[in-house]
Amino acid sequence: MAYVDGFIVAVPKANVEAYKDLARKAGAVWKEHGALEYVECLGDDVPYGEVTSFPRAVQAKEDETVVFSWVVYPSRQDRDAVIAKVMADPRLQGDEWKSIFDGKRLIYGGFESFLEM
């Protein structure tokens, strides 16, 4: 079964195009280093819930949209190897992302698949 990294982040609407450019670059790097899939999605039907919701989770403001993304790997071991390569890749070094979104409100985690249909 596959291993998946999931991400949720709030991106200012004014920065969506810059985020898309960064995502294309990052996706190419992830895939080059062994990720099976790299998917980025802009919030389209993401209501602000009374108790919990995607916008609440990342403290999204009125002028922000929620981005939901995931990366698929063959296994946790492969994921760990890919992440090490991605983090060392000079194309993703630097603070470019800091001008696009607030990394303190990025939520991420690794997940072991148990069902694929």
Automatic annotation (TrEMBL):
Q: Which domain of life is it from?
A: Bacteria
* InterPro entries for the chain: Dimeric_a/b-barrel, DUF1428
The name this protein carries in UniProt is Uncharacterized protein YbaA (DUF1428 family)
Protein's organism: Sinorhizobium kostiense
